[in-house]
Amino acid sequence: MAASRESSTIHEAADGSELPVLVFEPAEGTQPVAGIVLFHGGALRKGSVDGLAPHCRQLASRGIFAVSAGYRLIGQRAVSIDDCIADVRLAVEYFSRLAASRGLDSSRLASGGSSAGGHLALVAAMIAPDRPLPASKPGVAAVVALNPVVDLLAYSPEQQQVLEQNAGIAAGRAIEYSPIEFVRPGNPPMLIQHGTHDEVAPIDQVRRFRDAMVQAGNDCILFEYERAEHGFHYPGPAGHFDDVVDATAEFLLDRLVSRSEAGALVPGRELLVDGTTGSTVATTR
User: Fold this and answer.
1) Closest alpha carbon to 245 in 61, 101, 78, 118
2) pTM above 0.85?
3) Any idea which of 2-11, 15-24, 164-173, 213-222 has the lowest mean pLDDT?
4) Nearest to 46 by CA among 18, 87, 78, 89
5) Is the per-residue pLDDT at 102 higher than 60?
6) Which of 101, 134, 199, 201 is most buried when burial is the number of CB atoms within 10 A of its CB?
7) What is the pLDDT of residues 214-262, one digit of tens each?
8) From the CB of residue 184, how many other CB atoms can be counted at a distance below 10 Å?
9) Whole-angstrom Cα distance, residue 253 to residue 100?
């Protein structure tokens, strides 16, 4: 596996402050074939760009230009989720300029992230800046989300109230930030990787989102990791890091480069096709 090159830079937040960006590129002399910008998790209040650096590093070694970009955190320089979303939108624009300088056009670029970062990437791609309208221009050609919350109304009224308070969302307005409400024909292709024992975002809400996407005629793949909990995709004892990176790279190369060049599925992963929705669910053996 070819080594990657690493560097760091900054992008400008919506308030004019500086945010960190970690840049991972294929080895010297290797032209990237696709690109992705990732946003870390942490419930909008913690986390850093270092969290997804291992994922970016491995993706770069597979020929993908990978960036981990920061956004302001609530309780620090952000007041609400709106500040986080604004920063993510600017980060996607900055990433697009970086990618263009490396010969990648918008048709080969994706966004994504983990948990809260995955939710932010989905919001930026699916919901227009002047909410609550669906986005007419996603800004990216695909989205990869790791254990995201996709249905903010799937929780009890008490849980929704806590969620709104923690995210700085006005009471009763969680629906305006709920990706499942903005599923429309023309949403970008999506890969969601999720644990079946996720206690933060139960798998049922993600399955409903996948079904809604497919019923709208969109391309949405859900990979389910049996008995995996929230945050299952990091290096360590969970044991799913390699599977997650492989699936992400495969999806990006397939959807953004050429299906004819994508090759077979990674050995050891079993595909189950849901005959009702026509969608694909994967479980690790």
Assistant:
1) 61
2) yes
3) 2-11
4) 78
5) yes
6) 201
7) 999 999 999 999 999 999 999 988 789 999 999 999 999 999 996 535 4
8) 15
9) 18
Residues 148 and 230: their CA atoms lie apart, in Å, by 9
Cβ neighbourhood burial of 276 (10 Å; 0-12, 13-18, 19+) = exposed
Cα–Cα distance for residue pair 114/256, rounded to 1 Å: 20
Place of tokens 């249905």: 151
- Specify whether the CB–CB gap between 241 and 234 falls below 8 A: yes
Residues 6+ apart with CB under 8 A from 36: 59, 64, 65, 66, 67, 109, 110, 111, 112, 144, 248, 252
* Concatenated DSSP letters of the chain: ---EEEEEEEEE-TTS-EEEEEEEEESTT---SEEEEEE--STTTS--GGGGHHHHHHHHTTTEEEEEE--PPBTTTBSSHHHHHHHHHHHHHHHHHHHHTTT--GGGEEEEEETHHHHHHHHHHHB-TTSSSBPS--SSSEEEEES----TTSS-HHHHHHHHHHHTPPTT-GGGG-GGGG--TTPPPEEEEEETT-SSS-HHHHHHHHHHHHHTT--EEEEEETT--TTTTSSSTT--HHHHHHHHHHHHIIIII-HHHH-SPPTTEEEEE-TTT--EEEEE-
CA distance linking residue 16 with residue 240, whole number of Å: 38
